[in-house]
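Record copied across here:
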Amino acid sequence: MPRSTAATRRCYPGVIEGLAAFKALGLRLACVTNKPQRAAESVLAQFGLARDFGCVIGGDALPQRKPRPEPLWRAAELLGVTSDTCITLGDSANDANAARAAGMPVVLVDYGYTEGRPISEIDCDAAISSFTELADALTAPTSDLRFAFLRRARVSPSDRAGGVV
């Protein structure tokens, strides 16, 4: 598999629009990754996304990495929200396992770094193809059963206290 370089990286469709929608809802955003801190910050800067995130937690920022919950808890703390008002939006079993351990609902995208495992085999609350699907579900009540978990989640754009990590 060819190695990704700054010249070949592309932002997935719907990411920029989805992040803008989360921000418009008043949600606070964190980027929690197992990539080294500097590499994560560099990629976000390359796409002009760094300003969208209240914090970035790289894999070398704490003694623990995902799938441990500590990076997610730290992100919630830095965002000034409680972990029970956050949703983890990820693309791998590491993300799902960290979210479960942190007590956060987890939504997985069906692309990205899936560790070679189909997301249908990973314990998550919903699977989506674009960030905008989650933003739309947070914006208005939906009959889409994938988002039934939102009825019991404490993530609420109306109280401006939630976060997406």
Observations:
- Strands lie at 28-32, 55-57, 86-90, 106-109, 126-128, 163-164.
